[in-house]
Amino acid sequence: MHRRNFLKTSLATAALATSGLELFANTFRPELAGDYQLIRGNVGYYTNRGGTIGLYLPGGQPEGGVVVDTQFPDQATALLETLREQGRLTQFSLLANTHHHGDHTGGNGVIAPLATQYVAHERAKQNLIENLAKKDEKAELPLPKTTFGESWSTNLPDGKETVSLRHFGAAHTGGDAVVHFENANVAHLGDLLFNRRFPYIDPGAGGDILNWPVVMKKIRTHYDRNTIYIFGHAADGYPVFGTASDIKAFENYLKKLRNYVRKEIKKGTSLEDLKAKTETIPGAREWKFGERLRGVNLEVTYGALMAEKS
Ligand SMILES: [Zn+2]
What we know:
α5 links the parallel β6 and β7 (146-148). The chain has helices at residues 3-16, 73-85, 102-105, 108-111, 122-134, 212-222, 244-267, 271-277, 294-309; strands at residues 36-40, 43-46, 53-56, 65-68, 92-96, 115-121, 146-148, 151-155, 162-166, 178-181, 186-188, 194-195, 228-230, 233-234, 241-242. 34% of the residues lie in helices and 19% in strands. It contains nine helices and 15 strands.
């Protein structure tokens, strides 16, 4: 079998195998397999399986690019294969992770050895270490060489782009970073935004469902009205990039979720009954996809509000 077809076939097989670990992984989209899309300037994204990968591909150069998140090993390998076929990149200036989750960092072992710098938030590194410690077999995943607390930035060697990472507080996890390509004005939000699908939330890794809308507001006021945002995940049929209006919509979902659960707690509704009767959140009914995570959203919010009360 031709190598390329083999890659596509093994990718499809891997994507079809369901794993309880990747509840929030994007649905496999064959039309995007092994392909990437440019958004603005040299910045684009790659979707296959797992969290959206952000890319900076300097024109006509074999090196000096940036990869933001890495999906899983097969997908990271397929991405490299695609770039090499097109004579694009073989070496990168920077690998950045938006946070530690496996569907965003699983391919780090493929990309990190090709990158001069590898950076993530300090809590994301801690979360990666804790996750590795939990695993039975010793997976050899590289750890970030550089970490930051509030912000970090670097100028790329082509002299045309500056990449800035910024942490806005606990939300999806305790170590979320927004990766901003300043010149192109494109910002990768990682899993800070699930476009029209129920988000995953990880309180065990420092995530904070009640602070999440506060973080979203900080983000849309920090960047400007022309900023294009890349999202970690989107419901089928919805794009993995958008504008501040999508941030507002997601912020609204998180607020409506909190208000709804608070009201139900006041009424004396049990968590079990709440989960059984809820299909969508009043005032945010566009969020109806990825139902497997709806219960997690209700449960984490319920727990956080009860803890706040006591
Ligand atoms: Zn995540």
